[in-house]
Amino acid sequence: MTHPDADLVARAVAGNQDALAEVLRRVQDPVYRLALRMTGRPVDAEDAAQEILIRVMTRLASFRGEAALVTWAYRIAVNHLVNLRRHRPQEQLTFDSYRQDLLDGLSAPTYTGPDSDLLAEEIRLLCTQALLRCLDRPGRATYVLGEVLGLSGQEAAWVLEISPSAYRKRLERARSQVRAALRGRCGLLDATAPCRCGKRVNYAIGKGRIGPDVPMLATHPTRGTAQAATDLSHLRNVGELLRAHPAYAAPESRTNAILALIRSGRYQALLPDNSRESS
């Protein structure tokens, strides 16, 4: 059965400007949020999402309606993100180093400066982003699609281009790794665990992970209903903690530039000759 999005895509492929704009509007935030969860930082997510959105918009003629438009865009996005070559250095993370860092961060004195609640929220958001980066990229994509973005098993398997049974095995392995990493550490999940976001602010500032003036995620522009509406005092599992992020909005300047380029036919200017995807 052809998905209802097929009519919109057909009009966009035929050159209808309103349809082109609507396609971009529908996919821009989902693609950006996936990129942010995969890369960990807005600056990297913006670059990746820009390239992904150009690929989505220039491959619309290949859309066959076998999945929803956003799900189809996720397949293009995951293929790009799993093979992405980093152009900015980033701290290498393992589950062992992550667990040790949660304890090391408690040795710093408690932060007593301004915006303490905001900075504690920044710690929570950065900490869960770092946890995702401990997974290898295929495992991270699997976990984000199924546990964070809430795709069905059938949809996620289609995006990843693996069988549903292989997807279930990969997801359970990732879930097990993530649960083990926070076991006995995170005070949001276990009242007896030692780690508290507010206790880690000075440590994170000292490590250069956050700046007290410009929190990277806690003040990020959002659109729609915030995922962070979950009552953090009643979290039931790690999945809820990982889902409890704001509804991050893709940068309008980037998406407006993409739409202008698509309309002008000059989109190749944003696609480097040497793709950032590895072979």
TrEMBL record:
Signal peptide: none
Location of the RNA polymerase sigma-70 region domain: 25-87
Record-level Gene Ontology MF annotations: DNA binding; sigma factor activity
Keywords assigned by UniProt, alphabetized: DNA-binding, Sigma factor, Transcription, Transcription regulation
Entry-linked SUPFAM superfamilies: Sigma2 domain of RNA polymerase sigma factors, Sigma3 and sigma4 domains of RNA polymerase sigma factors
GO biological process: one example: DNA-templated transcription initiation
InterPro entries the UniProt entry points to: RNA_pol_sigma-70-like, RNA_pol_sigma-70_dom, RNA_pol_sigma70_r2, RNA_pol_sigma_r2, RNA_pol_sigma_r3/r4-like, WH-like_DNA-bd_sf
Keyword Transcription regulation annotated: yes
Top-level taxon: Bacteria
Family statement: Belongs to the sigma-70 factor family. ECF subfamily.
Database matches in PANTHER family: RNA POLYMERASE ECF-TYPE SIGMA FACTO, RNA POLYMERASE SIGMA FACTOR HI_1459-RELATED
Name listed for the protein in its UniProt record: RNA polymerase sigma factor (Sigma-70 family)
Species this chain originates from: Actinocrispum wychmicini
